[in-house]
Amino acid sequence: MTRYAIIMSAEKYQHFTPTQFTHADSDLLFDTLTKKCDYAVQHTILFKLSPDATKSPSDILSEIRNVVSNSTSGDSILFYFAGHGHFYEGKTYLILPNTVPDQYETTALPLDDISKELRLPERACFRLFDACHSGIDVRDGEDRLNSNGFIRSISHDASGWVTIAACNEDQYSISDPKIGHGLFTHYLCEEISNCKNAEVIYPETLKVKIADRVLEHSKTLGYTQTPTMNASISGNISIATKGANVVVAQVEKAVDTDPKSLGLRIAKLKEVKDILTNEVLENVLSVLSEQCLSDFTSQNILNFAISLGAKMSANEIPEKMHPFIVKFAKKISIQPRHDLERFEEEYEDPYSMGAIYALYPKKMKTRVSYSVRQSANLPSSALIIDLKGDGRCIPNIKILVYIIPLQITVCMLVSVFNCGWRDDLREIELVKNYYQMLQPADSNERIRELGPVASKDSIEIITNIVQKRVDHLERELLL
After folding, report:
1. C-alpha to C-alpha distance for 112 and 186, rounded to whole angstroms
2. All structural domains of the chain with their residue ranges
3. Is the domain defined by 3-259 classed in CATH 3.40.50.450?
4. Reported pTM
5. Which candidate, 341, 339, 337, 363, places its Cα nearest to that of 352?
6. Which residue of 17, 320, 381, 429 is 20 to 30 Å from 421, comparing CA positions?
């Protein structure tokens, strides 16, 4: 039996936010399979895709076809992808570095096309996806990747495949900068490496081993991640054999790499202007908040009473907004200098106590909390613009303007919240997040660009909310 593998990762995107450590993950899997298992280099292809030197969908399919064209009955084929996935109009896509929003049919890679190339008769086929870094907004805030639909689709479409996904459809695929990898791929390769020489590795046992370790590690980071597996192949079919002898040929990897040396890249970063001074951060907050106030005032077709709140630190942001901020930061994979954290705590179900329940195992529940904090040496970073409704037809809206300092740049976030008709923060719902990364050379005019986008789009959404509210109230009067 000959084993074939196609390993693909996309880390930086032209129109979408980056994914962390996906290239490091694909390198790790390539080395694990070719150096520690029975995958020969000449039968294993590695795509590390980038915006500067990407490959078209047809180019990728052609190279995949060439790799597996010599496979025969009884061989196995493994496909791995780390990056963004998307479910759109009934089809599943892998997002490439130059994929254009709403042009997925021509600029993304349809999973069905890959399946046609790999799902060959009498071959064992494996799919590994570390592709739920998502629910991710594109950079202009106008579109969103359907990562939940992507995971749901690949999990339900198991015909002819053994599919292992990094997480459930309602979870995120977590990475940890301390290990420099995503948790799923890190423990996948570690468990393979821990197998004894000549040990046959089956996907079922591999999934069980990595699931426990991924779950345990993700909880230390404040998240829950549980890898899943789905299969329609009967019998015990191995995914690899540890330490088997294979013929290794010196074959060039299909990798798009940066020609610059690490030293030159470091030197270039040192030349970047520092925009994380208190003076710059204060200016960004002032310019953006003034622009948002002006734009929401000019778009005020619903006659809100608009007022501008005082500047405040991240510590003063209402707690009910914290979950939305922390989830946003995780979705776009930023590393802020503020502390944006998620915590999980297990506790005993209070309704499962008493004498009768003593006969059964304790039932545990999970309590999730979120925290947004900043250190005292950083300047004010947020303020709230209030749009006061009429208490009956027009809801109360709060607009959070939040300047998040990152490691070398700044994320400007405008979050629009619906507080209902009683102006109660307990009823708060996120309308939409709008954000933009501020680069060192950007001017005040660049900062102001976010205001018109956020005001125009969110007022349209709020108008639809009001329309539904009016329809409901009118129906009440007819009862």
Report:
1. 27
2. 3-259, 278-478
3. no
4. 0.56
5. 363
6. 381
